[in-house]
Design brief:
Layout (H helix, E strand, L loop, with lengths): L2 E2 L21 E9 L7 H9 L10 E6 L1 E5 L4 E8 L1 E6 L2 E6 L3 E4 L5 E5 L5 E9 L2 H4 L5 H11 L6 E4 L7 H16 L4 H19 L12 H17 L6 H6 L5 H12 L3 H19 L4 H7 L5 H12 L3 H16 L1
Parallel strand pairs: 1-3, 2-3
Antiparallel strand pairs: 2-10, 4-9, 5-8, 5-10, 6-7, 6-9, 8-11
C-alpha cells in the first residue's frame, strides 16, 4: 500500500504523476481528509472503503490521508467523488461545497485545493487522475483536437460540479464509480472499459457545460501563470527571508497586486501561504530526516527555533518533536 500524507509537487507546484509514461496512464486514490490524521487508522480505511478489493497491491493506487489538500496543479484530468462527509473544493475563481454523492471534474493545469468544511471532522473521497494520452489516440487525431484540447487548453474551465442530487448527473457519476471499481478489481480488459467510461464522462462534460466554456470575468491564462510563478518563487526561496514585495517581483507585479492575486484567487495572504508551505516542508523533514529541530527550523526559513515551535504547534497540533515521534511510531505500525 502506498500511503500519501502530502501532495508531492515539483518546483512549479505541479503534482508528480509517476504513471503518466506508463502503458496505462491512470491513477486512483482513496482519499481521507481528517483533522490530526493518525496513520494507524490507514488499514481501517482500506478495509472499510475498499471492501476486499485489491487496491493495496496495485502500483497506480494510493491511500491519501491529509488535513488539507494544498494548492497544486497537474497536467492530468481528474474526477473526484465524495463518499463520506462534506468538503470545500476551491479553484482561483470558485468555491464548491461537495457532500456525500457529489463529484467534480478538475481540468488539466487547473490550480485547486480541498479542505474540510467548518465543523466536519472527516471526509472520504475517490479520485481518478488520467493523462489525455489515455483518450486521444494518435497524433493529429480528431479525438485530441476536437474534444480534448477544447477542454484542456481553456483556462476558463476549472472545476465543474456534478451534483449527486441532479438526476441528469447520476449516470456519469455512476460511470466514474464503475471505472474506479473496475480498476481495483483488475479483471481482464479493465483498461479498455475504463478508457471507454472516461471518454463518455469527458464527452458528457463537453456537452453539458459547453455554455461555461466562455471566458471567466477577471481570470485569464496570464493571471493563472502569474500565480504559478509566485508559487514557484516561494518553492525556491522559502528557506530565506522573503517579503511580499519579493514574491510580487518574481512575477513582475507590485506588492499590492501580489496581495490581490493571493487574496482574490487563492483566498489566503502571501505570508500565510508561505507559512503553510514552510510547515509542510518541516513536516517532511521531521518524518524523513535525522536533522535536529534547530536544523529543520533554519532549513525551513523560520526566524527562531522558539517561533518555529509555536507556529508548528498552532498548525499541526503538536510540537515538532511530538510529530516526529508520532510519525515514527505510525510508520512502524503500518510496515510491521
Amino acid at each position: 500500500m502506498i500511503l500519501q500524507t502530502q501532495v508531492t509537487v515539483n518546483s512549479s507546484k505541479q503534482e508528480y504523476f509517476n504513471n503518466t509514461i506508463s502503458p496505462f496512464p491512470y491513477f486512483a486514490v482513496l482519499g481521507v481528509l481528517k483533522k490530526r490524521a493518525d496513520r494507524k487508522s490507514a488499514e481501517t480505511y482500506m478495509n472499510q472503503f475498499l471492501k476486499g478489493d485489491l487496491g493495496e497491491s496495485k502500483e497506480n493506487f494510493r491511500l491519501s490521508m491529509m488535513e488539507v489538500v494544498p494548492w497544486h496543479w497537474h497536467e492530468e484530468f481528474e474526477f473526484c467523488r465524495v463518499i463520506k462527509g462534506t468538503c470545500r473544493f476551491m479553484t482561483p475563481t470558485q468555491t464548491i461545497e461537495l457532500k456525500e454523492g457529489d463529484a467534480v471534474f478538475i481540468n488539466a493545469n487547473c490550480l485547486h485545493m480541498v479542505d474540510l468544511e467548518e465543523g466536519v471532522d472527516e471526509v472520504v473521497y475517490h479520485t481518478q487522475q488520467f493523462s489525455s494520452t489515455l483518450l486521444e489516440g494518435p497524433t493529429g487525431s480528431v479525438f485530441k483536437h476536437k474534444y480534448i484540447l477544447s477542454v484542456s487548453n481553456n483556462p476558463c474551465i476549472q472545476g465543474l460540479f456534478l451534483s449527486g442530487d441532479d438526476s441528469n448527473h447520476l449516470p456519469v457519476i455512476a460511470s466514474l464509480e464503475s471505472a474506479y471499481t473496475l480498476f481495483l478489481q483488475n479483471d481482464l480488459g479493465y483498461e479498455i472499459y475504463i478508457r471507454n467510461l472516461l471518454s463518455e464522462c469527458l464527452l458528457y462534460i463537453i456537452k453539458t457545460f459547453k455554455d461555461e466554456f466562455s471566458p471567466s470575468a477577471g481570470f485569464s491564462l496570464p493571471i493563472n501563470n502569474r500565480i504559478k510563478t509566485m508559487m514557484t518563487f516561494i518553492e525556491y526561496n522559502y528557506m530565506d527571508k522573503i517579503s511580499v514585495e519579493d514574491i510580487g517581483k518574481s512575477a513582475n507585479v507590485s506588492k499590492r497586486e501580489c496581495l490581490r492575486c493571493f487574496s482574490t484567487y487563492l483566498h489566503i495572504s502571501p505570508f500565510m501561504y508561505l507559512t503553510h508551505f514552510r510547515i509542510r516542508k518541516a513536516m517532511q523533514l521531521l518524518e524523513s530526516s535525522e536533522d535536529s529541530i534547530i536544523q529543520i527550523s533554519e532549513a525551513c526559513g523560520f526566524s527562531s527555533n522558539s517561533y518555529f515551535g509555536k507556529v508548528f504547534h498552532h498548525h499541526v497540533g503538536s510540537t515538532p518533536n511530538g510529530y516526529r515521534k508520532l510519525m515514527r511510531d505510525t510508520n512502524s505500525a503500518t510496515t510491521s
